[in-house]
Write a structure and sequence with these properties.
Structural class: mainly alpha
Number of strands: 0
Order of helices and strands: HHHHHHHHHHHH
Radius of gyration: 18 Å
Helix content: over 70%
Number of helices: 12
């Protein structure tokens, strides 16, 4: 359990640290550097057999990696517009939707209702100064849709490449290539100082290498239901990380929205056969 809690905190700390690069690189440049460093770290750790992969395996790797790249890019652009905790909360709707759509039990539709209430509470109905950015919300929801696709594509990839670590390393490599066209203009317009490179490397380690390794430890040590419940804490942890490290304060309704989505995730996990898979975001 401690390993998984550290992994969850590490992912959100990495996202918070990534925001430090936005003034210099913007979301696209930050995504590109983070994905490139994450790919290098994961390739070094898991050492996938690049030259021995079959055509079938590459056909599974590429859509998986493109989806991971799109998910990261959309999430970071959302993070540039809305608070971290709310971006993660909205993103979580994607895998929740997959869980509900794959079930015919009445209880799962109750969890869908909880999640829908959370989205309604976050919607910028008033249009006032405290309202959330609609584009940022849309980008976070798109990242969640990519997360849903990631679940299906990850299952397909694990069927042809049994070593999960190697699949993630290959997928992140494709993700880095996917975001490169968006990242290069931003990266090329600034000087890559040692400070920028150091922060980008730290973001990659906190968001990918460290949490993925710890999640594998958690999966081996914990029942799948316990694993899923702990993963459901991500929106709340992201909100607290945003509060303490980015000074992003939320209103009462926004806290209630986070609670609704978290409750929906916990409830869905309790009634599901498998936990929500972790995300590389």
């Amino acid at each position: 359990m401690p390993a998984l809690l550290v992994a969850i905190t590490s992912i959100q700390a990495g996202a918070a640290l990534a925001k430090e690069l936005f003034p210099a690189l913007g979301p696209a440049g930050t995504t590109g550097l983070r994905a490139a460093f994450a790919a290098l770290l994961l390739l070094a750790i898991f050492r996938p057999p690049l030259l021995r992969l079959s055509r079938q395996q590459w056909r599974a790797v590429f859509p998986y990696g493109i989806t991971v790249g799109g998910m990261n890019l959309a999430f970071y652009f959302a993070l540039d517009r809305i608070p971290l905790g709310l971006a993660v909360t909205l993103e979580f709707v994607g895998p929740l939707g997959v869980a509900v759509l794959g079930s015919r039990r009445a209880a799962d539709f109750l969890w869908a209702l909880f999640a829908a209430v959370g989205i309604v509470l976050l919607a910028p109905w008033s249009g006032g100064a405290a309202a959330l950015d609609g584009v940022g919300m849309g980008l976070a929801l798109f990242a969640g849709a990519c997360w849903g696709a990631y679940i299906f594509l990850g299952g397909r990839l694990s069927g042809v490449l049994p070593h999960d670590g190697q699949g993630v390393a290959l997928g992140m490599s494709v993700a880095a290539l996917t975001v490169l066209p968006f990242a290069l203009p931003a990266i090329g317009s600034v000087g890559l100082t040692p400070r920028i490179l150091g922060i980008a490397l730290a973001v990659a380690a906190l968001s990918s290498a460290l949490p993925y390794t710890l999640e594998m430890v958690g999966l081996r040590a914990l029942p799948s239901r316990t694993f899923g419940i702990l993963m459901s804490l991500e929106p709340a942890v992201a909100t607290l990380v945003g509060l303490f490290f980015l000074h992003e304060t939320l209103g009462a309704l926004q806290w209630l929205a986070v609670a609704c989505v978290s409750a929906a995730s916990v409830g869905s996990t309790l009634t599901a056969r498998q936990p929500i898979p972790p995300v590389e975001a």
